[in-house]
Specification:
Immunoglobulin-like, alpha+beta, about 30% strand, four-stranded mixed β-sheet
């Protein structure tokens, strides 16, 4: 009985070691990792400073070559500087075409029924109406994309 048991486990061990190189070789073929392109820039209003900090939203309009769609955001500071984030801070955007929305609030949306007041015209809060787009090419190393908003 002991001989059959050790023979059974010995065979399983042998098969596991025999398959290990094949599994390692196959795991190197292709990659599930998505290629992100770092995107940064500056948001301005009428060519000057922003009235305060805010957020840029990158909404994918078309898929990346991998077929992935992933929206992204970028917080900008009072100077308007931003770096895009898809998964982790500063990681960038997937290749593809994006429509952009920008928020910069004097009085942000709230649960207290206070009036909502934006520093920006309404059109910038709607990606389909903002007129702001960005295309990220698959072979790009990094992109600087400045966004100049108009108050009128």
């Amino acid at each position: 009985m002991l001989n059959q048991l050790t023979s059974h486990y010995g065979m399983r061990l042998w098969v596991s070691f025999a398959l290990l190189p094949a599994m390692l070789l196959l795991s190197g073929c292709g990659s599930n990792e998505l290629k992100l392109v770092p995107v940064s820039g500056k948001v301005t209003l009428d060519g000057g400073a922003m009235p305060g900090p805010g957020t840029v939203y990158f909404n994918p309009e078309s898929a990346s070559p991998s077929g992935a769609l992933r929206p992204a955001t970028a917080e900008f500071d009072a100077d308007g500087n931003y770096t895009a984030k898809s998964f982790t801070p500063g990681d960038g955007l997937l290749p593809g075409k994006y429509v952009i929305r920008v928020d910069c609030w004097k009085q942000a949306p709230n649960m207290e029924s206070k009036p909502v007041v934006s520093f920006l015209p309404q059109k910038y809060q709607e990606p389909s109406k903002s007129g702001l787009t960005l295309t990220v090419e698959p072979d790009a190393k990094s992109i600087t994309h400045n966004i100049d908003l108009q108050s009128k």
